[in-house]
Design goal:
Blueprint (H helix, E strand, L loop, with lengths): L11 E7 L16 H14 L5 H6 L3 E11 L8 E11 L3 E12 L17 E12 L10 H4 L3
Antiparallel strand pairs: 1-3, 2-5, 3-4, 4-5
């Protein structure tokens, strides 16, 4: 049985995270591989806001898999920085969902970023990304998204 949302499906959300030591290289800069899980957390929280989790979807035989990911790094994110992952649903179809993301620097060394520091982006955004997710069944074959999740796409 397909899970039903208990709240409206949001088209945007934000999640704040502190960059952990384990996510950084020896120079204290967040490793490029750390960004992909941050994007996933942003998407997960968008879905969770409906009252449905990925676990609920998967138990119902609905799986969302990444078919495309693009990530552009603008400025470094460092150990202990407070960042905000801003996630937006920007399109899709009956089978796919497209997201855009901004990863913004909120705090560095416990304070607002110094706008005179060249490592600080003028708009606060350190990275931008896009993803496309496709809905598949338990065998990996494409299937339609649940109607409530597909929306008017």
């Amino acid at each position: 049985m397909q899970p039903e949302p208990t709240h409206p499906v949001p088209t945007a959300g934000a999640l704040r995270l502190r960059v952990r030591y384990a996510e950084c290289d020896p120079f204290g800069v967040a490793h490029h591989s750390s960004y992909v899980p941050w994007l996933e957390e942003g998407r997960t929280e968008l879905l969770r806001a409906t009252g449905v989790t990925y676990a609920h979807l998967e138990r119902a035989g609905v799986f969302l898999v990444i078919t495309r990911l693009s990530l552009k790094y603008r400025r470094p994110v460092r150990y202990d920085d407070l960042i905000e992952i801003r996630s937006r649903v920007v399109g899709g179809s009956r089978i796919k969902i497209q997201h855009e993301y901004d990863i913004a620097l909120i705090q560095r060394l416990g304070e607002a970023p110094d706008p005179t520091d060249p490592a600080t982006p003028t708009d606060g955004v350190c990275a931008v990304a896009t993803t496309e997710l496709a809905c598949v069944d338990q065998t990996g074959r494409p299937q339609a998204l649940p109607e409530w999740l597909a929306g008017d796409r």
